[in-house]
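Researcher: Structure prediction, please.
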Amino acid sequence: MIELQNGGVYLVNGTTVIPDGPDAAAQLQQKTGKAVPADEAKKETMAYNILKAHNVSGNMENLQIKFDKLTSHDITYVGIIQTARASGLEKFPIPYVLTNCHNSLCAVGGTINEDDHMFGLSCAKRYGGMYVPPHQAVIHQFAREMLSGAGRMILGSDSHTRYGALGTMAMGEGGPELVKQLLNKTYDIAMPGVVAVYMTGAPVPGVGPQDVALAIIGAVFDKGYVKNKVMEFVGPGVASLSADFRIGIDVMTTETTCLSSIWMTDDTIRDYYAEHGRPEDYSELNPGPVAYYDGCIYVDLDKIKPMIAMPFHPSNVYTIEECNANLPDILDDVEKRAQVAFNGKVDYNLRNKVHNGRLLVDQGVIAGCAGGGFENICQAADILRGQYIGCDDFTLDIYPASAPIYKELAANGVIADLMETGAVVKTAFCGPCFGAGDTPANGDLSIRHSTRNFPNREGSKVQEGQVAGVALMDARSIAATAANKGYLTPATEFAGEYRHQIYHFDSNIYAHRVFDSHGVADPTVEVRFGPNIKDWPKMSALPENLILKVVSEIHDPVTTTDELIPSGETSSYRSNPLRLAEFALSRKDPLYVGRAKQVQKAQEALEEGGCAGDALPELKPVMKVIHTKFPDVCHQNMGVGSTIFAVKPGDGSAREQAASCQKVLGGWANIANDYATKRYRSNLINWGMLPFLIPAGSLPFKNGDYLFVPDIRKAVESREDVITAYVVGDEELTGFELRLGQLTDDEREIILDGCLINYYRNHR
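Model: Predicted structure follows.
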């Protein structure tokens, strides 16, 4: 089904894979009549050539990328624009689209969500952007329909910014990276590795894009096979997939921890652009005659079966057939994962979901950028036609990803068919994906064609004794399960016919509702502020010496951004840095905020010219021990802040608030064995936090300890990697090593200045 190549491969004429090794040169000579060095063949990938076209550094080893377009939604754009305004923004230099698909219900917090929307509309007018009103489209569907273009690059402030199936290299990053683009700066990365996803065959009826995506995620995630690399989809199997099918696989590549994705394009994608009224945005993309890849994922589409990703991660993957055959063992494993994820605070019992030897789920949801596509919903309706979900616990909600899709589903009768079954069809909204809609009952299990199933991602609150779970599945198998009144069923058991409806895109919906400045800024427009929209608080530059208190210690194998700053109802406060920070780590370590605030008092005292020890008396014995070896450390040359330790933080969302909330509360650093994603580490750096690393298996400190990092400013300035720090004991200092890892010169300056806002203020 899925195989991973051990080592690199050559791809000849887009069809023949030759593994790198002793025989590779001879095979290449036989196939092409010449020797092709790997370094030269690397330049023949689609990814390399798109990156080259957007790189302004003149050095393909260290890229400085300028994107063609930007996109954000209403959880992120206020903070981004506020940061850019504080840094000197005058107009949007490239097309910037503000969508409203996260806080669009306006159900929590009074006027604050709609206030954010009016802020967005006024900024689109003042700075020359586009504004997509609530319920019109989820961010990524609008980008597919209106922004993508073969060979282009798009940067979005959402981790699922993936448009590779349409020939567009897209990346999801934290807000500060978009700020850089808005200020005519660049996205700086080392040249990423490129991994081929070589597809053969064609999916059998009943297998959908989520099945293929989950199979790939399950094969690569734990191994880090594509971490921070570009996935390049090639091979004869690509031609067997519709545009919607490719899009459905592509959007889930985020869950592999890859940097981006790109697909070969063909007549199927040409037709997609033509249908959407943009034929000029198509061009054919293929790798060169001999392309070299750093790895290869072989995908035999014929052998993919309906899949299920059990709680609490998209990589916890089984075939539905395997799940049904091994329910006791698999459910026991999920319950053990729950004990780890929730620190033993609540019990999550799934074995009570087994009835007559079968798993009975409580809810189905088909939604968002992954599930809400036209083809997914049509085929789900085909499976459900003539069936009824029943009048018991099971519910089924469906969210088409855009108003044009909704209109076409209404025109061809699919919505009527779905309503007949008992399903509820709603407007474009991302809520079920991040915990702001369709939260199950306590103890329930939901099956969803959406992007993630992290702990509490569905909206439950472990701190209040609530727990529910999400299993990811394809829309087709969700429909088959719904037809069986909630009993887990693969869509391959459906014996009926699929009607294969043709999609017709109606651009009038957007033409008459979406505000488009066409890039013309109007500085006479006043930005509209609601009372919840606040500026970022003042942030200090990095001090000469740093005292850190460890205020949280997390030993889960991976810590998600949802656990660092919860999604769901907290999204309503994303425009208020101080208020949002109150939710930091609330579902993982409820004592974190209080501990961090106590330490912050010391730094605030220093900034006001006072004594840190008077503000935080427990610092006085700490200073006494530090002075035994470093007598010159004083209030004039030190800073005090908090830090957290996590084994591998930052999987999941691109949201910058996972880092900025820590900084707002006085955080100066994270300490980790590894960072799950490049984007989370970038968020730390952009908020002036030190991304420290320590080796796995050895933890020289514990929660509540004070750490002293002498000459930290000098170490950052002089590009040092290994830094000697000390655990402050009762009577002595115990040394240990921290590493900073690779930092660009600009990243070092951002850390030295204290955050990206300070950096731009200091370098105007």
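Model: The chain has four domains: 2-61+192-203+212-303, 67-188, 307-508, 545-762.
Researcher: Thanks, that helps.
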